[in-house]
Amino acid sequence: MRPDPPPLRPAVPRPAETPPVLLPVGAAAKRLRTNAATLRAWERRYGLGPSGRSSGGHRRYSPDDLQRLRRMLDLLRQGVAAADAARVVRTAPAADPTPPDVAVGDLLTAMRALDAPALTRLAGAALRRHGAAGAWTAVFAPALVAVGDHWDATGCGVETEHLASGILEAALRGHLAVLAAEGRRPPVLLATAPGEHHTLPMTALAAALAERGQSSVLTGYLPGRALADAVATVRPHAVVLWARRAATADVALLARTARAGPAPVHPAGPGWPTPPADAACAPLLANLPDAVRALTVRAPAPRSGPA
């Protein structure tokens, strides 16, 4: 007898809406642990100003404004240049307040119902709230793992995994298209090993890199000669070769590409041995946030001089 699938999360009534609190610049700065001069500068330079109005008509920061500014501060702490961080914040709609555990439950419910419109809506909400790296780590990957575990245990659910993967791929590519980096930095070449058709993690990595202003070239799976040709054409500052399974983790191809240089070649994914089998290879990228940190080229500091 096949086991029943894990129970779906029951619907929870939502609390009644209350009017949002609107804050003047000083109070908003205090809430964000920054200063009013910084917020005024961001409004002047990047258009990240208050969108609310008090009863007297004075401009005030709304909860959505504060969420955007928190995202700006988070990106700056990660080393993203201010102009790039502002571009990410401006292009992202207001955040959905759904916490990650609830978002995973909602996504699983839509997956099991094969509800494509709901999947599309939920994927977009997760990307708006968490960004590509956060959405992948906290929402998309846990839901996909749950579906995969059920498939492994019962032999059922391939239709769920295929529909969900296609919709999440489309959502991430849409996010990537909006945030496409402008090519000011050398790109990263993102490929999967020959025979490896699971490209979704590389799409998530490309979108997360774009959020930090880092361009990439996403090729999908490539045989050895095609990978060498792509490296020669793109001249990337780094190469990532993804393998989900040991059967597709071509250690010889990885080592050959790494020795050809000059770009470091990182294995990524659970298929590769740890540590890499060849000393010529760059370190294994164990997870998406670590990969983003390792692969992002810092923008050169602006030159000082007369305005």
TrEMBL record:
<keyword id="KW-0238">DNA-binding</keyword>
<dbReference type="InterPro" id="IPR009061">
    <property type="entry name" value="DNA-bd_dom_put_sf"/>
</dbReference>
<dbReference type="InterPro" id="IPR000551">
    <property type="entry name" value="MerR-type_HTH_dom"/>
</dbReference>
<dbReference type="InterPro" id="IPR003759">
    <property type="entry name" value="Cbl-bd_cap"/>
</dbReference>
<dbReference type="Pfam" id="PF02607">
    <property type="entry name" value="B12-binding_2"/>
</dbReference>
<protein>
    <submittedName>
        <fullName>MerR family transcriptional regulator</fullName>
    </submittedName>
</protein>
<feature type="domain" description="HTH merR-type">
    <location>
        <begin position="22"/>
        <end position="91"/>
    </location>
</feature>
<dbReference type="Pfam" id="PF13411">
    <property type="entry name" value="MerR_1"/>
</dbReference>
<dbReference type="InterPro" id="IPR047057">
    <property type="entry name" value="MerR_fam"/>
</dbReference>
<dbReference type="InterPro" id="IPR036594">
    <property type="entry name" value="Meth_synthase_dom"/>
</dbReference>
<dbReference type="GO" id="GO:0003677">
    <property type="term" value="F:DNA binding"/>
</dbReference>
<dbReference type="GO" id="GO:0003700">
    <property type="term" value="F:DNA-binding transcription factor activity"/>
</dbReference>
